[in-house]
Amino acid sequence: VTVKQTHRTGFHFQPPKHWINDPNGPMYYNGIYHFFYQYNPKGAVWGNIVWAHSVSRDMINWQALEPAIYPSKPFDIKGCWSGSVTILPGNKPIILYTGIDSEERQLQDYAVPKNLSDPYLREWVKPDNNPLVFPHGVNASAFRDPTTAWWEDDGHWRMLVGSRRKQRGIAYLYRSKDFMKWTKAKHPIHSKEKTGMWECPDFFPVSLSGTNGLDTSYRGPNLKYVFKISLDMTRYDYYTVGSYFRDKDRYVPDNTSVDGWDGLRYDYGNFYASKTFFDAGKNRRILWGWANESDSKDDDVDKGWAGVQAIPRSLWLDPSGKQVLQWPIQELETLRGKNAEISNKVLQSGENVEVGQGITAAQADVEVTFSFPSLDKAEPFDPSWVNAEKLCGQKGSTVKGGVGPFGLLTLASEKLEEYTPVFFRIFKAPNKHVVLMCSDATSSSLKTTGLYKPSFAGFVDVDLADKKLSLRSLIDHSVVESFGAGGKTCITSRVYPTLAVFSNAHLFAFNNGTETVTIDKLNAWSMNKPQMNE
Ligand code: FRU
After folding, report:
1. Whose CA is nearest to atom 9 of ligand 1?
2. What is the mean predicted confidence (pLDDT) over 59-64?
3. Catalytic annotation, residues
4. pTM for this model (two decimals)
5. pLDDT (tens digit, 9 = 90+) per residue, 73-93?
């Protein structure tokens, strides 16, 4: 295969070629980060799935190793699908993953390092007592993606497996004393009708205060739980914040959290099958997610690769307790090179300014804070506008508003034939304001066939008392990954410009509202290339 370079990313996680999907079993072990992922060693389409393996000291520079798990035994001969790592007492990692057997049944298997004194844990073995869990009493074609297990002081481990019964999405709970013999609990830890298959469940505690993460087995006061599922029907990752009732082994979302696809998402764009892990090195919880392509299968085969991982994000509970906050790991900042700065620049209604001249706008990190003198001109909000993506589709970046739309035009060609706007629009509702954040791929590429160009959008639950809104965008050739209001709402777009490539890509700030907007401060950095699995 020749790998086409135009849309390959500079600093996002990618192997040199071929297809990738879900992040698997991320962990921090003896000073090294391990990352596994679903990988097709034979081509740029899904299939022949193995667990590819890379290691890093900073989650930014990566060294590729041999695949850790690949089909080799009756219990995984047709595929080694997603799963998680648990670090057992005595500092012993163990992988739980879904194996596909010759009858296409989904089983839960395990693997352990062959040699714990190899710092890279290159080789993994699958002991003969596999599989650990057969699909008894469950749908054998919808029974997969085991979570990191947690330990309870009744002496039993717990883990979850995603599933469905008819159209009810389910996270089954299994218990074990020795990690080898697992018994299904009478009740799932959580389920919801009409949501379809729950892929890649994730379940972990978050602290009620501060940004530190907690070990998945942590117990104590002053915490809540986050429960995440990947909905096969919509291809987004949804989460709720709630409580874990240990006496009944049930998770119950708070009444401020909504289950299913009306609920909160980690990301309102291309971000799926995500998974967190507790980084004991820096006491934080890290989120990994797959940023799948928005081009066609033929395009993927032609370019010789498909899929990247979003930049790992620190994740913690918002002080409101109603949602999580996400922010790119601080290590990313080590890649920042040449800088361009703007401060106190007024953007009149309809004004565009080029920012960051002299930086590599196709491979950049941008942080900006906008302010506005008043909210009086905000457009009225129609309460029937419940679908953010639809609203963004109707009121794109060029449709004049009151306060907003304002934001960035990323991956823009010089004369704006192509651009991916990331922006805010503020509405007035009775007693409050509604903030819409969009990452709109509609005008991202002049290519007219085979591309999915959605107007991704989410609402931002932010206090506007200080009349400011902040935005950070990580721009990387075919990825624009944005964080609104300090990580309250995140949107990742995959786009494929034809003109706005390499040194022909530009970055602008714009204001298409009638109200004036000021760039309080903007910093844009060229991003250097890390070592990436070469
Ligand atoms: C999610 C998923 C998982 C499965 C894996 C197979 O993208 O479908 O449910 O384990 O991918 O590659």
Report:
1. 199
2. 98
3. 22
4. 0.98
5. 999 999 999 999 999 999 999
Extended strands (E) in 387-505: 403-412, 420-429, 432-440, 455-460, 468-476, 479-484, 489-494
> Is the confidence metric ipTM above 0.90 for this complex?
yes
Angstrom distance (rounded) from CA 455 to CA 381: 19
pLDDT of 356 over the 90 cut: no
DSSP designation for 265: E
Q: What is the CATH number of domain 24-330?
A: 2.115.10.20
Nearest CA to ligand 1 atom 8: 199
Nearest to 212 by CA among 295, 298, 258, 278: 278
Ligand 1 probe mutation, 105, 109, 145, 233, most atoms within 8 A of CB = 145
d(CA 297, CA 516): 44
Ligand 1 atom 1, closest CA? 273
- Residue intervals in the chain for CATH 2.60.120.560: 336-527
Alpha-carbon gap, residue 510 to 76, rounded angstroms: 52
Q: Domain 336-527 is classified in which CATH homologous superfamily? A: Exo-inulinase; domain 1 (2.60.120.560)
Ligand 1 pocket test target in 105, 141, 163, 199 with most atoms within 8 Å of CB: 199
Q: Are 2 and 304 in contact (CB under 8 A)?
A: yes
Q: Point out the ligand 1 atom lying closest to the alpha carbon of residue 144.
A: 10
DSSP 3-state of 298? helix
